[in-house]
Amino acid sequence: MAAKRRSKIWDVDRNEVTPESIYLNRRRFLKSVGAIGSAVAINGFACKPADEEKADTATTDDSSSKPTPKISEEIVIPNTPTSDLYPAKRNDAFTLDRPITDEVVAATHNNFYEFTTAKNRVWKLVSSLKTRPWTVEATGLVKEPKRYDIDDLIRKMPLEERLYRFRCVETWAMAVPWTGFPLRELIKLVEPKSNAKYIRFTSFNRPDEVTTQRFGSYKWPYYEGLSMEEANNDLAMLVTGIYGHELPTQHGAPIRLIVPWKYGFKSIKSIERIEFVEDQPGTFWNDLQPLEYSFHANVEPKVPHPRWSQANEWLIPNRSDSRPTQLYNGYEEQVAKLYG
Ligand code: MTE
Fold it and tell me: According to CATH, what is the number of the domain 14-338?
């Protein structure tokens, strides 16, 4: 029997995707009461270099002394001036070849080194970061540098929901519905000059709110970069929501980058500054360990990390749910032209 032709690389058998009715019911439920579930303890690789890992045991878990605002145990959905924009309409061009990851699993398996290196504890620590009011500065080689209030910015942008695969360099993977807007819409808004060739993104450095930024062994803030061609690719998104509501802080509230064909560390969380520059900027992990984390960091199954293979990935929360890694995380059709 002839195989059914897939018209797009992201086309899939509908049976492989969570039925929309189940997902929508879950979204309504979340909207009214918040997600309920039990914490899932998961041990992962560490993204950070091994010697740094040993040094950084000074993470301060102050969750026991601070009351967490409770919408659910693990997921606190912020109540923001733009909450009426969620859930945004889904863009059906983006489908999956795997089930959507359970929301509680995604919200309790996070990399957010500003708080801790323990993925299963990030959600317990993030409430100290104040994500409103929040501004994002667009600066550097642009027509007119400007600081945007996050909610004014979100209202200017065409929010939509997209189902994306997400692949961490540590080999775990998930699939989630992000809400946000194409990065190129912001680029249009700020009108970069013709000599702007790269974008440098910077996260927060708030030692008063995040105790690990006071005592930890990293040099904050976290920073990342993309070339202008990558940033203008349709897949590159600035994300403000997940699972039909605003981002909980552990996923990078109030705004983060998502570049689904690259390893997850490129998808910088809680962005404060977006700077247009002429030369390729440094990036947090590349500056720490140039031999382990490259600037481009594209998902490439045949290029092993120096300490482990990238040939396979596993879907959280089950290490046994393993499958071959796809080139550019399955987005070859859209991005291979960038690297030809
Ligand atoms: N952004 C900041 N500011 N700090 C971080 O530690 N970790 C990165 C990325 N963005 C990180 C960050 C890594 S290594 C991954 S895999 C993803 O966030 C994890 O995103 P998630 O927790 O929403 O799954």
Answer: 3.90.420.10
Closest by CA to 235, choosing from 312, 87, 336, 155, is 336
Per DSSP, what are the bridge partners of residue 140?
276
DSSP code of residue 180? E
- pLDDT over threshold 90, residue 46: no
Mean pLDDT of the chain: 84
Dist. CA 241 → ligand 1 center (Å): 15
For ligand 1, say whether the CB of 142 is within 6 Å of any of its atoms.
no
Residue 23 contacts residue 101 (beta carbons within 8 Å)? no
pLDDT at 216: 75
pLDDT tens column, 28-38: 333 433 333 33
What is the C-alpha separation between 203 and 252, in angstroms, rounded? 10
Q: What is the pLDDT of residue 45?
A: 36
Length of the chain, please? 340
Give CA separation, 199 vs 93, 125, 138, 219, in Å: 27, 30, 10, 20
Q: Calculate how far, in angstroms, residue 180's C-alpha sits from the geometric centre of ligand 1.
A: 17
pLDDT at 150: 98
DSSP type of residue 19 = -
pLDDT at 66 (0 to 100): 37
With b meaning 16 or more CB within 10 Å and e meaning fewer, what string describes 88-117? bebeeebbbbbebbbbbbbbbbbbbbbbbb
Q: What angle do CA 114, 118, 120 make, to 5 degrees?
A: 115
**Cβ neighbours of residue 160 closer than 8 Å, sequence gap 6 or more:** 88, 89, 90, 91, 179, 180, 181
pLDDT value, residue 340? 87
Strands 172-182 and 160-167: antiparallel
Answer whether 120 contacts ligand 1 (Cβ < 6 A).
Answer: no
- Of 38-42, 107-111, 269-273, where does mean pLDDT reach its minimum? 38-42
